[in-house]
Each structure stands twice: as C-alpha cells, then as structure tokens.
Design a protein that fits this description.
Helix content: 25-40%
Order of helices and strands: HEEEHHEEHEEHHEHEHE
Radius of gyration: 34 Å
Number of domains: 2
CATH superfamily of the largest domain: Potassium Channel Kv1.1, Chain A
Structural class: alpha+beta
CATH topology of the largest domain: Potassium Channel Kv1.1, Chain A
C-alpha cells in the first residue's frame, strides 16, 4: 500500500529539532544560543550550504512553515553567528524566497530543451515542505505551460527566391528551419517548340490531338520554411 508523506509531521519534527541544541563530536551546547528573533529586523537563514537574509514578515507571508517557526510556539535556537540553520536545498529555496518577496513564479525554460521539469519538481518539493501551497499547486497543475506559446507558420518557396528571403527575416524570438525537397513533374512540350509554357494556347494554335501530346519529366526542387515564434506571457508568472 502506498503511503503519502505527511509534511506537517516532518515540519513539526524539524521545528522541535531547531529548538534543541545541535551537538556532535566537535560541537558543544554553547554553539547555539537563545536569542529572540526581532520580527522587525532581518534574519539570516542557513539553508544547506547557502545563506539568505530576509525579514520574518516576508518569510511568514504565504509559508505555514515559517509562520509556525516564528509564532513563539517554539523556543528558537540560533547559531553563535546569529543564523538559523535549516537542512534543505538552498538552490530551490532561492526561488521559493523570490516568490515570497515578489509573488513571482519562476520560468525554467529555454528554446533548446524546453521546460526543466527536474527544477520544477525540486521546487515543488521545497514548496510543499515550507508550506507555500499556492506555488506548489501552480507547479502540480503545470501552470508554467501556459506561459510559453509557440506560434508556427509554414510556406513553400522556390529556392533562394526574394519571397523566401523576406520570409526568413526574423527577430530573436523566432526560430526558422528550412527543408529542401524535390521530385519530378510532367511538363508539356509543344511539338513546334512555341508554346511549351501554355498548353491551352498550343492546343488552339497547333491543333495537337490528345494522343499526340508530349510531356517531359522535369526535376524540380522546393524549399519548405518553418517559422516558429516564441511568445512569453510574463503576466502569468505574477
């Protein structure tokens, strides 16, 4: 039977651990001190191997984890340098903190590889852990897919024609691909060599019976141009 991890139990366990001295073979109880956190002043967080500084009000706005951490329910322990250590992924936390500050969701996408699902999944796990549910729900619903739209336009041209050159002109948001293809077509040949380009005229002027009309196999080539324009709706990240 599959079991769903209850993040609230994990958070409570870590919050309890944060309230206790962290001791190991090289650490003493004096490594942590009871220093009240100033709700008006910035606080330094040690997330994994990275450090961040933010106001408690910023951290608590939209995060049930930090709302509980700074609620006074837990006796907060800080390192001697004044930082609060949380065992987590600092890289993902950077985007989570940006979201809390600006309410701006991240766009992990480029034209070569598309959306970076690995980054989104890592951020979703971080958002779940820290109780940033709006961001977590947005990632689970793959809301980022609505941010990027690819508009395609295709046309067939004579190779190296002026029309093709104009169509190839594009900006930095447009990717253009060309595909050359060819084959053979039947082309009518006037027996007198006068109306090769006009079958109807030849029939009228030369009176060539249908059974005597001659068609040559002529090799032709065309160029298929595919133009893809990237449109990013930045308002969907707000």
């Amino acid at each position: 039977m599959a079991h769903t991890l209850d993040w609230s139990l994990v958070r409570d366990a870590e919050l309890t651990a944060l309230a206790q001295p962290h001791l190991d073979a090289n650490t003493t109880a004096s490594a942590h001190v009871d220093v009240p956190i100033d709700p008006e002043g910035p606080i330094t967080l040690q997330i994994g191997e990275r450090r961040f500084k933010a106001l408690p009000s910023t951290l608590c706005d939209g995060s049930t984890y930090f709302a509980a951490l700074f609620s006074g329910r837990w006796e907060q322990k800080q390192s001697v340098d004044g930082s609060v250590f949380i065992d987590g992924d600092g890289d993902s936390f950077e985007h989570r903190l940006r979201y809390l500050r600006l309410k701006e969701k991240p766009l992990f996408w480029n034209r070569v590889t598309g959306f970076d699902r690995e980054k989104y999944n890592a951020l979703r796990v971080t958002a779940d852990y820290f109780g940033v549910m709006e961001l977590s729900v947005w990632i689970k619903a793959e809301g980022y897919k609505l941010v990027v739209t690819i508009k395609s336009d295709t046309q067939v041209f004579e190779p190296y024609s002026m029309e093709m050159k104009k169509f190839l002109s594009h900006d930095d948001d447009t990717k253009t691909s060309c595909f050359v293809f060819g084959g053979f077509v039947k082309e009518y040949r006037c027996p007198r060599g006068k109306h090769n380009d006009d079958l109807n005229m030849c029939i009228k002027k030369c009176n060539v019976p249908a059974e005597e009309r001659v068609y040559d196999d002529v090799e032709v080539s065309k160029t298929l141009v595919v133009r893809e324009k990237t449109i990013i709706d930045w308002t969907r990240l707000q």
